[in-house]
Amino acid sequence: MKWLFRICALVCFTSATAQTMTPILLEAQTGRETGVFSKSPVVQRAILLKPSTPTDTALLFYRGWSGIANIKSENDWHRNLNFLKNNTNLFTQAGIALVVMDCPSDENTVGAGNTPLGCSDDYRSSKKHAEDVRKILALLKEKYGINNFFIMGHSYGAVSSKWLAKNLGTEIKGSIHSAAQTVASPRMRAYGYSVESFDMGSLKAPALNIHHGDDQCIYTPYSTVMAYSKNNLATVKGGVPNGDVCGGGHYHSFEGREEASSKAVIQWIKTGQVQSNVGE
Predict the structure, then answer these.
(1) Domains plus CATH for the chain?
(2) Among 79, 102, 160, 199, which is disulfide-ready with 62 (CB 3.0 to 4.6 Å)?
(3) Which of 273, 236, 268 is CA-nearest to residue 255?
(4) Residue pair 234/210 in contact by the 8 Å Cβ criterion
């Protein structure tokens, strides 16, 4: 009977202390309208992955290409979290809420072949983008008691994380730029041009750059990020070079090193300490 008691005690303790995340759809009115003949309000959507234990810290995440989350319901979070998607439990345990960000409803159209038809650099670099995000920040503060915000963008999503870090200043605690795009496509210059000469020194809050040392995507060269990083670069090593070199796997998206990379992000958020080599 003693072994039964031990098992029961362990299961009961684990169940009592286990953390879960509840996905919640967030919608904020931007204050502007869209449409020609029939006007409709423009809405900024996001999904809050809320830990079961109250927290005052959130990481707002912008996905990679197409850069548009196309959120319709709270169930759309998993396909928009890139390498973080299977490690949300780590953020829960660390007391960090995840917020999956979308482009506002007047910018979130995607065409054939996952080609974005809106939410280009012109919008992402604008003060309007920052104002739209402030609506979500206000909602998180007022309804969920979250006051400490970090912004993160992966690949093309780093266009948002960089410009928001600049335009929000000290309204956020820090920004994280993962596999950041720094070279625009010659065929789609509207996507990526604004970060080819972005001044990282213009950011008021601390920043973390996390990048694979062998990233083979031509739009996200490691050498560029290494050149502008100043003791704030976490270099991912090893992993699996599988599939599209600019896609959701391969070195570009830390395949095989997703957990280690997520832990490096969490460590920086919690302590400010940069793990220089990730995955070794």
Answers:
(1) 23-278 (3.40.50.1820)
(2) 160
(3) 236
(4) yes
